[in-house]
Design goal:
The chain is α/β, with parallel strands linked by helices. It has helices spanning 13-25, 41-49, 58-62, 79-88, 103-116, 130-140, 171-186, 280-283, 285-301, 309-328, 334-338; strands at 4-9, 29-35, 53-55, 69-72, 92-96, 120-123, 147-157, 193-201, 216-223, 228-237, 242-249, 253-256, 260-268, 271-276, 332-333. A 7-stranded mixed sheet has the order 12-11-7-10-9-8-15. Strands 3-2-1-4-5-6 form a 6-stranded parallel sheet, with helices on both faces. A hairpin with a 3-residue loop joins strand 11 and strand 12 (253-256). Helix 4 packs parallel to helix 5 (103-116) and helix 7 (171-186) crosses helix 10. It starts with a strand and ends with a helix.
Length: 339
């Protein structure tokens, strides 16, 4: 396969970001088509990036023999159906998180890809960020000893201006903290999450709490190796996009991530100033490029994906346990939500 031809399904913010990386920054890969259900959206992005095809019809793209794989960047609740359809068409699949929002759908997506024999990679980009990858290597090499305390956080850049009514219920667990759940499992290699306790509230938009809106959460996870992990999220960090992780072990500690957009520090009459990233596509640009390169390499060389559907299912199980914990105010075992 000399040139890998990919199509993107979804031309919104993340879809546009991924399409631009594929079109301009990955050797041996061509953006062959852009698909989006909103008339004009696919055409605008395809024109900007030089993709020869723009369409609102997903089936048109899936039916083309010259397209080898798809990037699924449509709204989260559509991911499973698109994974199943792409697998049935024999296309290799990169799907943004979450791959699914129920255990049954996760199993359906995994089974479809395995039956079709296609690569299925899930977009947990932090695994590809240099600092996070170095932290994982330190833990995997035993330099930190036995993991005892772990932490991962996501704070979206504020001010929060979204309409809470347009945010699906439980988004903070299924779409935001699912990154942190995957990160914590990845940074505790060989361990399995056992139980979850979660607390969540509407601290950014308390006026929307009565309608079920949640924008702030803390989740505690116990692993079978004894480690205790915490994950936290907020929808509004006024200083910028903030993604960090920490592993404290019997032999040492590693940390990864910060909100700085450059390593420049300005010292002036008003104090010390650093520039911070305002978007995930800015802070994690290298990670997005690396994960899409890894997907292309897996397809070309017929290797397993570095982030699998099973990884996504494990992170989802923590999210589902967190949701039930909030509903019941009790600690929930992973077995309760995966049975």
């Amino acid at each position: 396969m000399r040139t890998l031809q990919l199509a993107t399904i979804g031309a919104g913010r993340i879809g546009s970001n991924h399409a631009e990386i594929v079109a301009r920054h990955i050797h041996g890969v061509t953006l062959a088509a852009v698909t989006d259900p909103v008339p004009g959206t696919a055409r605008r992005l395809a024109t900007e990036l030089g993709a020869p095809t723009a369409t609102t019809d997903v089936e048109e793209v899936l039916g083309r023999d010259d397209i080898h794989g798809v990037l699924i960047t449509a709204p989260a609740r559509s991911h499973t159906g698109l994974v199943v359809a792409a697998a049935a068409a024999g296309k290799h699949i990169f799907v943004e998180k979450p791959m699914a929002v129920t255990s049954a759908d996760a199993d359906r997506a995994i089974a479809a890809a395995e039956q079709a024999g296609v690569v299925l990679q899930v977009g947990f980009n932090r695994r590809f960020a240099p600092g996070f990858a170095a932290a994982h290597a330190a833990v995997a090499d035993g330099r930190t000893g036995t993991p005892q305390l772990l932490r991962s956080l996501t704070r979206d850049p504020g001010p929060f201006t979204a309409d809470p009514a347009r945010i699906p219920q439980w988004t903070i667990f299924l779409e935001t903290l699912v990154h942190d759940f995957d990160t914590l499992c990845w940074l505790n290699p060989g361990a399995t999450p056992v139980s979850v306790h979660a607390t969540a509230d509407a601290l950014v938009r308390p006026d929307a709490k009565a309608d079920g809106h949640l924008d702030t959460a803390v989740v505690t996870i116990r692993f079978d190796n004894g480690a205790i992990a915490t994950a936290e999220a907020s929808f509004s960090a006024l200083y910028g996009y903030d993604v960090r992780a920490e592993v404290f072990g019997s032999e040492g500690m590693v940390t990864a991530g910060n909100g700085r957009s450059t390593d420049m520090t300005f010292y002036g009459p008003q104090g010390i100033h650093v520039d911070t990233a305002r978007r995930d596509t800015e802070l994690l640009r290298a990670a997005y490029t690396a994960e899409l390169t890894a997907f292309a390499d897996a397809v070309r060389h017929k290797n397993p994906a570095l982030v699998t559907g099973h990884d996504a299912r494990r992170a989802l199980s923590i999210a589902l346990a967190a949701i039930r914990s909030v509903e019941t105010t009790a600690t929930v075992t992973i077995a309760e939500v995966t049975a």
